[in-house]
Amino acid sequence: MSRAVDRAELVEANAEFYAAFEAGDLDRMSAVWADGPYASGVTCVHPGWTRLRGRDEVLRSWALIMANTEYIQFVLTDVEADVYGEHAVVTCKENILTAEQGAGNGFLAGGSMIATNLFVRVDGGWRLLVHHGSPIMNDPEER
Fold this sequence. Notes:
Elements: H1 3-23, H2 26-32, E1 43-45, E2 52-53, H3 55-67, E3 71-84, E4 87-99, E5 109-122, E6 125-135
Parallel strand pairs: 1-6
Antiparallel strand pairs: 1-2, 3-4, 4-5, 5-6
């Protein structure tokens, strides 16, 4: 497989993670994350949360978040993807728009996070092993 194809498939797998969250679709979210021998190593750090470890614990957190998120949209920028054999890393800036239940005035919140997503190749496709999202406290672009 060519390096360009590998990277394109990785970027697509990363985009599917965000699409599953936007859709509030736990089945899609579950399909994104690694399982089988990787299940115990699945790790997620949501912004402001402690580390979650293990596929079941991570998916429970997504179920909770999605059940309490009426609307969320991500515009990813500064996407960098690097493949290292059977592992790969994607870093990106998550530009986020959200709305609360019953809000008649449109979008209530927006913000940016920085994310690091570690993928592992499973059966020829990329599956998410680690997601770490952090708020951007001091954006160098705003200086």
